[in-house]
Amino acid sequence: MNNLKKLRLEKGLSQQALADQLEISQQSVYKYENQITEPNIDMLKHIADFFDVSIDYLTGNSSCAHKIEEVQETELNAEELSLIQKYRSLPASSRQVLQQLTDDMLHHLSS
After folding, report:
1. With bands split at pLDDT 50, 70 and 90, how would you rate the model's confidence at 70?
2. Higher pLDDT, 30 or 96
3. What is the pTM of this model?
4. How far is the C-alpha of 107 from the C-alpha of 111, rounded, in Å?
5. Extended beta strands in 35-83, E state
6. Helix (H) or strand (E) run with residue 76 in it
7. Measured by CB atoms within 10 angstroms of the end CB, which terminus of the chain is less buried, N or C?
8. How far apart are CA 16 and CA 22, in angstroms?
9. Cα angle for residues 7, 64, 84 (degrees, 5° grid)
10. Please, what is the Cα angle at 42 between 92 and 12, to 5 degrees?
11. What is the mean pLDDT of residues 74-88?
Protein backbone atom coordinates (compact mmCIF):
# COMPACT_ATOMS: atom_id res chain seq x y z
CA MET A 1 0.00 0.00 0.00
CA ASN A 2 2.90 2.30 -0.85
CA ASN A 3 0.73 5.09 -2.26
CA LEU A 4 -2.22 4.98 0.13
CA LYS A 5 -0.99 7.75 2.40
CA LYS A 6 -0.07 9.93 -0.59
CA LEU A 7 -3.53 9.49 -2.11
CA ARG A 8 -5.24 10.14 1.22
CA LEU A 9 -3.27 13.34 1.79
CA GLU A 10 -3.90 14.53 -1.79
CA LYS A 11 -7.64 14.30 -1.03
CA GLY A 12 -7.13 16.12 2.26
CA LEU A 13 -8.47 13.22 4.31
CA SER A 14 -7.48 12.16 7.79
CA GLN A 15 -7.05 8.48 8.49
CA GLN A 16 -10.39 8.53 10.30
CA ALA A 17 -12.16 10.27 7.40
CA LEU A 18 -10.83 7.68 4.96
CA ALA A 19 -11.75 4.88 7.33
CA ASP A 20 -15.30 6.25 7.50
CA GLN A 21 -15.51 6.34 3.69
CA LEU A 22 -14.25 2.77 3.42
CA GLU A 23 -16.31 1.56 6.38
CA ILE A 24 -13.26 0.24 8.22
CA SER A 25 -11.44 1.30 11.37
CA GLN A 26 -8.89 4.10 11.53
CA GLN A 27 -6.49 1.50 12.89
CA SER A 28 -6.85 -0.51 9.67
CA VAL A 29 -5.95 2.54 7.58
CA TYR A 30 -2.91 3.13 9.81
CA LYS A 31 -1.82 -0.50 9.44
CA TYR A 32 -2.27 -0.42 5.64
CA GLU A 33 -0.28 2.82 5.32
CA ASN A 34 2.55 1.50 7.46
CA GLN A 35 2.68 -1.96 5.84
CA ILE A 36 1.80 -3.66 9.13
CA THR A 37 -1.05 -5.56 7.48
CA GLU A 38 -2.42 -5.75 3.96
CA PRO A 39 -6.04 -5.50 2.92
CA ASN A 40 -7.76 -8.43 1.25
CA ILE A 41 -8.44 -8.28 -2.47
CA ASP A 42 -11.99 -6.97 -2.04
CA MET A 43 -10.73 -4.10 0.12
CA LEU A 44 -7.92 -3.40 -2.37
CA LYS A 45 -10.51 -3.06 -5.12
CA HIS A 46 -12.66 -0.85 -2.91
CA ILE A 47 -9.75 1.47 -2.06
CA ALA A 48 -8.58 1.65 -5.68
CA ASP A 49 -12.12 2.47 -6.82
CA PHE A 50 -12.47 5.13 -4.11
CA PHE A 51 -9.31 6.90 -5.32
CA ASP A 52 -9.97 6.03 -9.00
CA VAL A 53 -6.54 4.43 -9.41
CA SER A 54 -5.29 1.01 -10.37
CA ILE A 55 -4.47 -1.58 -7.72
CA ASP A 56 -0.94 -1.69 -9.16
CA TYR A 57 -0.50 2.02 -8.44
CA LEU A 58 -2.03 1.70 -4.99
CA THR A 59 0.40 -1.06 -4.05
CA GLY A 60 3.43 0.63 -5.62
CA ASN A 61 3.80 -1.79 -8.53
CA SER A 62 3.21 0.96 -11.08
CA SER A 63 4.12 4.62 -11.27
CA CYS A 64 1.01 5.35 -13.35
CA ALA A 65 -2.10 6.08 -11.31
CA HIS A 66 -4.52 5.82 -14.21
CA LYS A 67 -6.76 2.83 -14.55
CA ILE A 68 -6.50 1.15 -17.91
CA GLU A 69 -9.92 0.25 -19.17
CA GLU A 70 -10.36 -3.29 -20.37
CA VAL A 71 -10.92 -3.50 -24.10
CA GLN A 72 -12.48 -6.34 -26.03
CA GLU A 73 -10.30 -7.48 -28.92
CA THR A 74 -13.21 -6.83 -31.27
CA GLU A 75 -12.87 -3.12 -30.41
CA LEU A 76 -9.24 -3.00 -31.54
CA ASN A 77 -8.04 -1.79 -34.91
CA ALA A 78 -5.40 -3.63 -36.94
CA GLU A 79 -2.50 -1.60 -35.51
CA GLU A 80 -3.63 -2.27 -31.92
CA LEU A 81 -4.05 -5.98 -32.60
CA SER A 82 -0.57 -6.09 -34.14
CA LEU A 83 0.92 -4.46 -31.04
CA ILE A 84 -0.81 -6.97 -28.77
CA GLN A 85 0.45 -9.88 -30.87
CA LYS A 86 4.01 -8.52 -30.73
CA TYR A 87 3.72 -7.96 -26.97
CA ARG A 88 2.53 -11.53 -26.44
CA SER A 89 5.55 -12.85 -28.32
CA LEU A 90 8.00 -11.10 -25.95
CA PRO A 91 9.65 -12.92 -23.05
CA ALA A 92 8.45 -11.93 -19.56
CA SER A 93 11.51 -9.78 -18.83
CA SER A 94 10.97 -7.74 -22.00
CA ARG A 95 7.29 -7.35 -21.17
CA GLN A 96 8.24 -5.88 -17.79
CA VAL A 97 10.57 -3.37 -19.46
CA LEU A 98 7.85 -2.39 -21.92
CA GLN A 99 5.27 -2.06 -19.14
CA GLN A 100 7.58 0.19 -17.12
CA LEU A 101 8.30 2.33 -20.17
CA THR A 102 4.57 2.65 -20.86
CA ASP A 103 3.86 3.53 -17.21
CA ASP A 104 6.59 6.16 -17.29
CA MET A 105 5.26 7.66 -20.52
CA LEU A 106 1.70 7.82 -19.17
CA HIS A 107 2.93 9.34 -15.91
CA HIS A 108 4.93 11.97 -17.84
CA LEU A 109 1.91 12.83 -20.00
CA SER A 110 -0.36 13.23 -16.97
CA SER A 111 2.11 15.53 -15.17
Report:
1. low
2. 30
3. 0.61
4. 6
5. none
6. none
7. C
8. 10
9. 150
10. 100
11. 80
